[in-house]
Amino acid sequence: xxxxxxxxxxxxxxxxxxxxxxxxxxxxxxxxxxxxxxxxxxxxxxxxxxxxxxxxxxxxxxxxxxxxxxxxxxxxxxxxxxx
Length: 83
Prior knowledge:
mainly alpha, rod-shaped
C-alpha cells in the first residue's frame, strides 16, 4: 500500500512515500479529473443534440416513437446539464 501526501513531508512520511511516487499519484489524479471533465462535456453535448433532434420531430413522428407532445416539450425545455 502506498501512502500519498500532498502536504509538507516530514519524518516517517518521506520514507514511506518517496517524492516520485507522490508526483505519480498527483499526475494520476489530475488525469482522472481531466477525463471526468471531458466525459461530462461530451455527455452535455450529446443531450443538447438529442433534444434538438427531438424538437425537429412532428406529432406523427412523436406518436411513432411513443412520446406525447407534452413529454417532448418537457424534455426539450430541460437545461443540457439536467438528465
